[in-house]
Predict the 3D structure of the following.
Amino acid sequence: MGTSITGQTFANGDVVAGQKFYAANYLALIAQMQALNDELVAECVSLAGAQTITGAKTFTGITTLKDGSVMASSAAPSADAQIANKKYIDDQIAINHPTYSGGESYTDGSGLITKMGTAAISANSSATVTFGTAFPNAIVAAVATYRRNADHASSGGFFWIKSRSKTALIVFTSEDFSGSFDWIAKGR
């Protein structure tokens, strides 16, 4: 009985491409080639299908991660071109830019402190805003904005910050009516 290859049947001892054909040798060669192919495929990163890739790999060029890709760590990147995952970024935002929760003070990631609030002021007088906690070093900037109502949209008076310190703002108005103002102070 012979062995069929691409539709032709060969018997042991037939000459194929200048070589004597022996089915056992041929089948052994096919098995070796298949094993070598399987080994090579197992060592390659495929373009499709699920794989577990182990060991250190270096990719050159631009690496694209598919939506839903999961990184094994949320560790901080240590080089400019390293990738940071969403959890790492979210954690950095929370650390460096805490959410203002409505109190008097807010400190950003750089150490700049923002204090804010609303205060009342009487006509042609000054009002002192005393901070709940003093700025540790100094005020960098301060702004106060008079809240005008419809009856007094423009009276021709003046409104300004007369003085400022680590512990307070003094605001003055030459308006001829009482009202309130919003203030913001920034410092370190």
Q: What stands out?
A: The chain has a mean pLDDT of 78.
